[in-house]
């Protein structure tokens, strides 16, 4: 099929390449002309570049046209979907493959429906490995829109008959992806905590002992209950740098974890693991530590407990 790919970052460029390898004709656009040139160069004859959204839509030819959006969630997606909606015609399809909030996807679909443009929300997992391994795709939308998109979905997925599915109406795809990422938060947090405990164990009995974390990860990769792709990646990182000394202990979040926690609260569903995993990320970014300073100050005030003073530079001596 012929498909437009908007956004050629790490995910979008690889997805364009996988579609091209699968025999699809891809029209690729990014705000960066360098990204467009790189995508065309990397993927070869089946990828054609576009210098603007108008050019992309024109090069898609006769309808129904399909434009797949892979730009950051929030305002970039909002602006891109709105611009495409104004350029496309009734029957055409806009796919949001990013990590949008499912409620925003429902609203965008309603806005496009006024022009007869169909909207599909495709929760996409696979990261930078998706080019080789295929992507896990959780797709929400109308049956006819999914049918129009099916050839691309079968190519992007690990196989035509697995790794992707139509999970419900518009919004369901991004809802499923949100929960997927919430689970991911919890799994990664447990793994990080386990390796941290191993890292801090410095004696075994009376003898000094330090675990070789890469060795332990490698052992667990084969036959253990916790073997997984995440563990494969942990082993890879530890083989590269067993102390992770070049990585600052600061963890970002892109929104899906907090959306999952908010949804759990709204539905009265206890989700302590995902919630604590989110809080751990927030705490990793709290360089000021005012809450901990307040705790120490309160203990000092009511009980005279000692506090550890900061240096003149504001750091702990």
UniProtKB/TrEMBL annotation:
Molecular function in Gene Ontology: NADP binding; phosphogluconate dehydrogenase (decarboxylating) activity
Q: Which domain of life is it from?
A: Bacteria
**Matching SMART domains, A to Z?**
6PGD
Question: Where's the 6-phosphogluconate dehydrogenase C-terminal domain?
Answer: 173-313
Query: Is Oxidoreductase one of the keywords UniProt gives this record?
Result: yes
InterPro entries reported for this sequence: 3-OH-isobutyrate_DH-rel_CS, 6-PGluconate_DH-like_C_sf, 6DGDH_YqeC, 6PGD_dom2, 6PGDH_C, 6PGDH_NADP-bd, NAD(P)-bd_dom_sf, Pgluconate_DH
Pathway(s) where this gene product acts: Carbohydrate degradation; pentose phosphate pathway
Give GO BP annotations, semicolon-separated: D-gluconate metabolic process; organic acid catabolic process; pentose-phosphate shunt
- One Pfam annotation reads 6PGD
Instruction: Name the UniProt key words of this record, in alphabetical order.
Output: Gluconate utilization, Oxidoreductase
What family, per the record? Belongs to the 6-phosphogluconate dehydrogenase family.
Protein name, as recorded: 6-phosphogluconate dehydrogenase
Q: What organism is recorded for this protein? A: Roseisolibacter agri
Lineage of this protein's species? Bacteria, Pseudomonadati, Gemmatimonadota, Gemmatimonadia, Gemmatimonadales
